[in-house]
Amino acid sequence: MPRESLLSSTFLQLADTLVADFDIIDLLTMLADRCVELVDADAAGILLADSDGNLRLMAASSEQARLLELFQLQNDQGPCVEAYTSGQPVNCIDLRESVDRWPRFTPYAVGAGFESVYAFPMRLRDNIIGAMNLFSVSIGPLPAADVQLARALADVASVAILQDQAARESRVRDLQLQNALDSRVVIEQAKGMVSERGEVDMAGAFNLIRNHARQNNLQLTRVAEQVVAGTLTFENLNTALTKHSRQTR
Fold it and tell me: CA 221, CA 168: separation in Å to the nearest integer?
């Protein structure tokens, strides 16, 4: 496929993730592969941070790239780690001159046949979610156009991932709110049933339900559901409360 067509196809695939559910691993694997095809790089790897801020390997264009990324993580050292922690692009056009900078990573990378590396933070403004590495088997800088393209690909992927996370968090919040509203309805129903059956006011009914929940280490909503289902009656609640009061005197 011509480079222009491949580039258009790549951005279309990335854009599709902004409007539909997607597999993050598949997205990042595609991104790593396309980076190798579109820019002057021989391998690519992508790391994302987990909820504790620890980097995890998510995708690599080759087995060599996968091992290099794992080596960085195991030794907490290398361009991808540095790009993530600093939030700035990292480049080394001659890895043999970076032994002091990365004393463990450099010999390993050179031994694997790589001579230069670029790393880009994956970010949206101040939100850094990971980093992308591009490895080359030759010494020298990436063309400026390739650097810009790689950064653009990383940025679009970052936006897609962050939007997906925001959508998932929003769905969780919506679900939690709906559950709370549903629970409130059940509790009000239970209060009404206890109030009517026991000829007590609504506050007294609620206290009976809440006391039973506390005494039996149950969720308030669960006790209310039992009342509504008829498996827990006013007599049960009142008897349990009376028994508890006697035991605590």
Answer: 25
